[in-house]
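Extended Data, record Glycosyl transferase family 2
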Amino acid sequence: MQTAGELSVNSQPLLTIAIPTYNRATYLDLCLKRIVEEIAGLSEDQRCLVKIYVSDNASSDGITPKVIAQYQGMQAGVFEAVRNPVNVGPDKNIAQCYDSAITPYVWIIGDDDVLLPGNLGIVLSQLLKGKIDILYVNNYWFKDSYQEKPRCQESHGALSFRSAAEFTRRTNVMLTFISGLVVRSGIGMNYRTELTASNLVQLSWVLPLLREGKNFMTIEDWVVAAQGSNSGGYGLVKVFGCNLVKITNEILKDMPAVARTIQNGTIVNFFPGFIFEFRKGSSKFSDMDMAAGLKEAFGDNWRYHIFLAPLIRFPLPIAGCYNVFLKVFRRLFGWALV
């Protein structure tokens, strides 16, 4: 397999954009529409660098296969689609997207997430500059329309990191967000089976790349809009609590500080908002033992006692005020907290 540094315009494809999907035809339609529009906006030479791969996890809605066929017809020779004969579960479907890529890089995008205008060319230009192990692309969450961007964006451009520790301080829990990660292909098969029941199978390649890689980059401008409040049905605390701690400690056992940074970021940046939404009754996740699960996973970390325990114990109105305080606290102290 060629590396990115050996590729040039008019050479072999560089990047596979892979979408795992199941019974979400409306979201998938928008996701594919934006990808196709981005490819159309590239130069003729750049278009040959991109492939599209969709893995339909035996959708039963009768519509998803039609949406896939429509876009496959528009992108003949570029678009590959597979349909699993049975539903293999989300982890195996995501892993199939990664493992099927024959290009040097893979970008798995959730079927409900949206690639923002003008950014595919930016991603390709960074990949063509030289070997990158993980490229993190900045993103924001939306509820109704991806065009409703947050009011301000403080960071712009691209940042390079020569150490996993520095890169992880910037990304921490976002290393679990597949749509925000463009990664080298062909990594981590020895962890794949173990992680296919964890809801975090992406860490089977992300963490080895973090452990073994030397070149990391972020694009600070918004590249992806992520659909919020659109997933659920599993225990978020178990997945991003005990599962995450176990997996990071195991794969990064020789880099304990980096493992802790991911865990710290999960406590500081991820769980406070979830706890508040769960207590308001607006979460779709099944976490009836939320308090016990968070304490089991993070109880020996001082951040738990500042960022999580008060939100669990305080009466809801006070917890709401405390959540606002935490947002200001994070904004003021940033990376120092992880």
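Summary. The radius of gyration is 20 Å.
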